[in-house]
Amino acid sequence: MVELVEVEDESFETKQAGPEENDDDYYTDTDSEISTDDEDNVPQEETLAERLLALRDIIPPTTRSYISNKVETTAGWIKSGLLFGGKTLWVVSTSALLLGVPWALAFAEEQQMVEMEKEMKMRDMGGELLNPGTTAGALNAQLSAQQGKPAL
Known about the structure:
61% of the residues lie in helices and 0% in strands. By secondary structure, the chain is an all-alpha fold.
């Protein structure tokens, strides 16, 4: 008959490095924190440009080219619109200055002439009223004859 003898390996008898059976300090919650070895190489401050460049691998090339074409087309339209608007504004403002300023000066001069003519007509009408042949002239002669007599 054969007799079985258990042979124990020394590597199973040595204690492995790690926490004690009742050691609560070593316990970590692996559900809330996911860590990999790659996180050690991640820079602390990642810029927006670096993040957008990382998206290059996620978005398919056909979608990227479609988006790129749409952005370039829109930028071209906006640039054309702004250039046209600037040129139009330049033409309108210079035309207003070249035509408007002389017109405004001529208009102001015309208004001055009209006012001077009105003033001259008023002087002529006032002079006719005070002539000696009219009733206003007679009244004026009487008033000038009575040179302020005392009332007492």
